[in-house]
Structures are given as structure tokens and as C-alpha cells.
Design goal:
The complex is a heterodimer of chains A (about 350) and B (about 425). With about 350 residues, chain A is mostly helical. In chain A, about 75% of the residues lie in helices and about 0% in strands. Chain A has a single domain, classed as Orthogonal Bundle (ABC transporter involved in vitamin B12 uptake, BtuC), CATH 1.10.3470.10. In chain A, helix 2 packs parallel to helix 15.
Amino acid sequence: MAVKTYPVLEEPEVVSAYPVRKLVLGGLLLLVVILFMLDVALGSIAIPPKEVARIILGQGSDNAAWVYIIQKIRLPKAITAVLVGCGLSVGGLQMQTLFRNPLAGPSVLGITSGASLGVAVVMLSAGSITSLHTVRELGLTGSWLIIVASTLGAALVMLLIVAISARLRDNVIMLIVGVMIGNITISLISIWQYFSAPEQIKDYLMWTFGSLGGVTESHLYVLASAMLLGLAISFSATKLLDALLLGENYARSMGLTVGRARLLIIASTSILAGSITAFCGPIGFIGIAVPHLAQSLFHTSNHRTLIPCCCLTGTALMLFCDILSQMPGSQSVLPINVITALVGSPVVIWIIMSRNNLRASF
Amino acid sequence: MGSLVTLSEERQRAMQEKSRHFALARRKGIFLPAAPLFIRFLLYCGGLLPLVSACDNPPKHTASSTTDSRQDLFPEKTKIKYAKGFSVEYRGNYKVVNILNHFEDQVDTLRYLLVPKGITPPPQYADAQVIQIPVRQMVGLSSMHVALADFMDAPGVLVGLGNLKYVSSERVRKRIAAGQVKEVGNGGDLNEELLITLQPDLVMATGSPDAKFSRYNTLIGAGIPVLLNSEWLETTPLGRAEWVKLMAVLLNKEALVNQKFGDLEKEYHRLAALTQKAQFKPSIITGMPFKGTWSVPDGDSYMARFLKDAAATYHWANVQGKGSLHLDFERVAPVALQADFWLNVGYVDSKEDILGKDVRFKDFRPFKQESIYNNNKRVNDIGSNDYWESGAVNPHLILADLIKILHPELLPRHELVYYKQLR
């Protein structure tokens, strides 16, 4: 709690905070490792920890089902949780900085709803055999079909947002436009749902609950590459983000082309949020809650520190939520979105209550 | 035998006596001088004029006739043996149908009076809906209703359907092509105006009696009775198929249903008895996980019963419950890895499609052995699967398919009807 005495954005004291911050960083890293191991070790089927370790180390096990469960089910899911935790948190942080709004998140630009629209088009039109047939001709079936549709939807909205952002100078207007585009896509989905059969709506609804379990092998490589690309853009834009935090006018006076900075940040967030939604469905709250959590843990607004911190905090929270969603000992799984909202909302409340100086950082 | 004859002779004589009495009274033109017993009898009957003639002549249904429990208009009756969701009572010249929902120890009931044209419904059932029988024009909201009409050789009774896309019956599709069947929508977009214009004798909806019935109030207010079918809640294949008897009761086709359902029932029991000799009970899994959750049928469910009768080993056979279990993928994976057969895989048509859903399925033994069978052999050109339509009223065919798949030696000559092997 001693950390509390260091005010935000005061350089000398931030320097003296380094050892504490390193400690927190180290602790967080350890926590992530422990949570990752727990996520792999725990599940509805009880597997002895010794066996889990043997399987992970590649020594195999006498029980073929256990090997399958660890290698094919739990490990991909835990790795997905790490990727999603990083991507959504960093996406959220970028949006909060760009719009200087504590309630912004990666879904604020309407990219997530764009992805949902793409999925809705495929899932809800699947009843009409012609459309499904056309899609089959393209050689797309099953999981990849959903992913491609979702990516296209997200990309479409992203292009729209970028085109509009090139014309707009004010970020607040940009934020409103983003929210409105989100609303338009959601109402399009609603119309589609209204005319769909109950079974199709149920499938779509299941998708909106989000899931880390459907990402396997080749999916994982694609998702990981998209995350790397998005995060690389983010890391390269840390200076721009820092400058934006001081206000657009100030940023401009520092010689920063605000337009280009905005484009870079929007592109990175779109890639992160779009690809995660494509593979896992819309996962809420991580993107809003984690940046606040990271800021309050590390007492900094410096993005070079904040981005890795967000990755770690987001990963830890995502792994924790995944462990909860499996409810060890129970036979069922809860949808991940339910858990993130359940865990995420109190976090947001707690942070807003405990940090009176929240406004100072925006 | 002798006593029976004398009994009927006695009854005959009593009848003659009675009719002589009536004839006498009629000739006199007055009722008052008649015996007090006779007056009491008339009062008991609740009506004066029609009954005088009704006693010596077969009943004629004029507009003023009322219900009478002692008349038997329906000599051919049907009895419900397996279905738990409805009951039929014969009350002389009308029938009472109860749609039941068993919930723990409570039973919710929706009551319907099936009254022939021209007979005034009995007053004691104020809350019951009245259906005029035989039903000549009805609207069915689910594909099960198509199957029921088709089974009863009465596809012509359907004048409207919830969705014209989900029909397999050739006879009904011909009627649709000829424009004799209207699409009335379902659920939220039920086209009430069209329904009221159609003025069918009956709308058959799906649901259970505890569900919100109020959404059909407009229709009922417009004088169109709505019958809730809850056959999907039945937990045995024969129970579900027995809902054909409800259709028969509505159409006054009890004789036909007794014969057709009787044959079906006999065949089902014969097949189920065949498998009792089976030494090896192959293990099976059903369905496919979606987003990490794998739904498998409960131990007391419709599907589990099929599997039991087909002598399969089902891992969740002892789980109590009538619906399905929503399990974690890793709960089912150990069973799937070891299973002998994989059934009812869902919306896939080949092994390649299965891999498209999730590459992890290639490690399952049924995948390696090519012992995956899907119930989609009879999917037609418009994408409707007859398994859910005629399959529901032909459980003996589904059972035969399952036995052919799991124990081919028991039914060497059977050709799969609803199932096909995925390659």
C-alpha cells in the first residue's frame, strides 16, 4: 500500500518507484505462471498433478485420454486465454487513451459488432441451402467459415471507421461515430435474428457467449500471429499514445501528426479485437477493466510500462476467469463471457471507488 | 355363453318395452299422464324433444341436440398406452382430451372438448376449448404435425403450416406446390391475420401446458381453438409416436390408428426383443461439442431409450433426467476416444466436414474406424430432415436402423432408412 504515495505522472518519484514496480511486475509474472499451470491442471476430469507435469514435459502417460485432454483441450485453451488476455487489454488501453475516456474498450469502435454481424450472416442464413452451398463452393466449412465471416465483418467496420476518422479532427466525435456504427450493426443483427428459426438463434446466441475452447492447432497459429502483429504496432506506438494522453493540441505542438497516430492505434486495436472476436466470440469487460487495474497497480501512465503490464494483468485475469468457468468438480462449463463480466464489473467499481484521481489520468 | 345371450335378450326386451312406452306417449300427444319414472328419466336426460325420437331411432344430429354420455357415437375407441402427455376420454357423443404436463407430483392440464358438429358442448367444462370433430382443416406449426397428418393418411387436412421449408412428406409438398397450404409463421411472427382469415377448425401448436398460453389468446378469441402438442416431452419412442392417436381422435379415425399403431408397436417390440440376445453391447457417443460444450442425452430421455432398446452401451444411461446434459468437452472426450460408434453427429455430411468443425475429432476411435453414422439420409432438396418428421411416428424404423448399425448380424436384410455412414 506504500505505493499509494506516488502521484501519477511525476517523473522523479516515478523513477524512485522503479524497485517497487519491478517487485509488482515480478509478482505478476509469477502469478501468471501459477495461474497458467492451474488452468492446465484443473478441470472437470481430475488428473493427478504429477501426470499433468509428465504430459506437459512430453513424457506421455499410460492414460491416453489424459494425454488427449491435456494436449488437445487444456493447453490450447490456456494459450488462447493468454492471447486473448493480452490482446483485449492492450486494445482497451489504446482506446481509453485515444478517446481519453475511462469507459472506452476495444468494442467501442463497433469492430466487435462488425465481427458479430459477419457471424450472424453465416449462422442465421445457414437455413437457406443456397447460401450455404455457395459458401461450400469456396471450400470453407465449419470453424473456418465462422472465422472468415467474422474477420470480414470486423474488417468492413474497421475500414469504415478509418475512412471516417480521416475526415474527423475531434476524437470525441470519433467515439460517438464508433458507438453509433456499433448500434447500426447490432440492429442489423436483430433484424436478422427476428426472421430466423429458433435453433439458428440459439447457435448464434451460444457464439455470443464467447468461448476459449474452440481454438485448436491451426487456429492457434493464426490467432497468435494476429496478436503479435497487433501488439507490435502497439509497442511501436507507445510514444504517440503518451503524447495523446496530454491532449491532442499538446500532441500536435510536439510535432505529432495526430491523424497518423490515430490511424495506427485504430488499426492495431481492430486487428486485436477483430481476430479475438473471430476466434472466441465477443468477450467483454477484460478490455475495459484491465487497463484500470494495470494503472492502479503500477501507478503510471507511461505506455511503455503500461502495455506489458496490461498484457500480464489481462492474462492473469483471463486465466483466472477460465479456471472459474470450468468449475473444477462440476461436469459443466459456464460461458467465459458470463465469468468475465461477473469478475470484471466489480473490478471496475472497486477501482473507480478507490481511485478518486481517476480523472487525472485522462 | 348362455348367460350372455339371455342378458342381451333381456336388454333387448327392455328396450322394446321402453320404445313402446315412448310411442304410446307420442301417440297421445302429451307427456304428463306418463309414469313418474318416465318423467324422472326425461329430467335426467336434460332434454325433452330430441330424446323421444333418439330412443328408437339412431341419433340424428340436429342443431339443437346436446351432449349425452349414454349415447355411443364412437364405437371404435383408442387407448393410450405409452404417451404420458395426453389422455382421451369418451363421453358418449363427445370426447375429452387432456394435454398433461407432469412436473414432479403436479399435473398441469389443458382440457379440450371434441364435439361433433351440431351438438352443444356440455356446460360443465367452462374453461375447456371446444374443437369440432372430425377436424377438416387444420394448421400445424411444427413438422411433427405434418408427420401426424401423413401417418393418418390425411395430408389434405393441413391448410396451413408454420414454415413451408421444413416439410418432407411428398403428399404435403404436392399440396404446398399446388398452393393449398399457406405459410402462417411461428413463434414471434405468427401471422394471426392470415390464420383468422383461413378459419381452420384447429391450430396445432407446440409447447407444454405450463408455457405461456396467452400468446394464442387472439386466435382463441377469434373462435379458432389452439391445441398444444407436447410430444417432444415424451421420453420413450413409442410414447412420442403414440401422439398419432391424438390426431386420430381429432379425425374420428380410431379404427385406422388402432390398426396402424398396433402393427408399429408389435414391430418395435419384436425388434427390441431381438437385441436381448446380443452378447456384445457396443459403446456409443452422440452429438458434437459446440464451443466447448458437449450436449449428451440424459439417461431417461427419448434417445437413451432407443440406445437401450438397440442394445448399446451408453455412458450416461444412469443419469436421471429427461433432457440433455451439457458437459465439458473434456468430460466426453475420454468416452469418445474409446467409443465403438458415433451417432447423430449433426450438420455434417462427411468425415471431412467433421474435421472442418474441429480437427481434434480425428483421434476418436469411431473416426478412425469409419463407424460414424448420421441420421441425415433422408434430408431432401429443401434441407428438411425426414428423421424429425416421419421418424417421430416410425420409431420401429429408427430402431431397426440402429440395430442394423450396431448388430448387423441381427437384421442382415434391413436397409438403412434414416441413417447413413459418413465417409
